[in-house]
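Here is the promised in-class demo. Please do not try to memorize the tokens; focus on the logic of going from shape to residues.
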């Protein structure tokens, strides 16, 4: 689909904010406390906020998908083995449902719809597809982190579910520029890429 077509019916458009949560981005969140920081990732909320506000004004949707560590007995979170190896600092209370760290960052609140995600793809074992269909959302504009992880997996799952997708190439980020650019190149085979400025310009024309 021509990218401009996606913006013709704002009420069927959703800005998909992937994992833009306090535990990932805020200095006092789980990653910040562990010294896992990226200036490129930290800049995303301020870059995306004006676009999110315009989408709200035009009658579109803001959808936040939030990485979740489900607490089990004694509040010990269920953490997959590969994630334990990658991020050994994660523990009790991190990314816990209802916690401050689990929430969408303040600059991008409020979300119209919020969906917990337990894997890279926000569609995996979640209610995401159901709420998108119920809301009449057909067109998805993707932003968030990381480009080569949650963003890429969710975009591909949206593609096979026949949603129309656009990826904001400067509205996503990874922990390395190489990983970000490589992921964008791969995603270009299933989705169009667009800048935040281009998306804003097209939306203003509706």
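The designed amino acids, position by position:
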């Amino acid at each position: 689909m021509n990218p401009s077509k996606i913006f013709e019916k704002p009420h069927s458009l959703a800005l998909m904010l992937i994992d833009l949560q306090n535990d990932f981005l805020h200095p006092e969140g789980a990653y910040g406390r562990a010294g896992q920081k990226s200036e490129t990732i930290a800049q995303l909320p301020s870059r995306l906020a004006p676009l999110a506000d315009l989408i709200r004004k035009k009658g579109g949707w803001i959808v936040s998908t939030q990485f979740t560590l489900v607490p089990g007995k004694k509040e010990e979170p269920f953490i997959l083995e590969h994630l334990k190896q990658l991020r050994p600092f994660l523990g009790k209370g991190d990314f816990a449902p209802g916690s401050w760290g689990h929430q969408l960052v303040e600059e991008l609140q409020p979300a119209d719809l919020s969906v917990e995600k337990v894997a890279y793809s926000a569609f995996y074992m979640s209610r995401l597809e159901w709420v998108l269909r119920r809301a009449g959302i057909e067109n998805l504009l993707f932003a968030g982190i990381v480009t080569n992880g949650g963003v890429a997996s969710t975009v591909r799952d949206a593609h096979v579910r026949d949603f129309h997708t656009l990826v904001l190439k400067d509205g996503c980020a990874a922990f390395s520029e190489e990983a970000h650019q490589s992921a964008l190149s791969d995603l270009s085979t299933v989705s169009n890429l667009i800048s935040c400025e281009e998306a804003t310009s097209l939306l203003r024309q509706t």
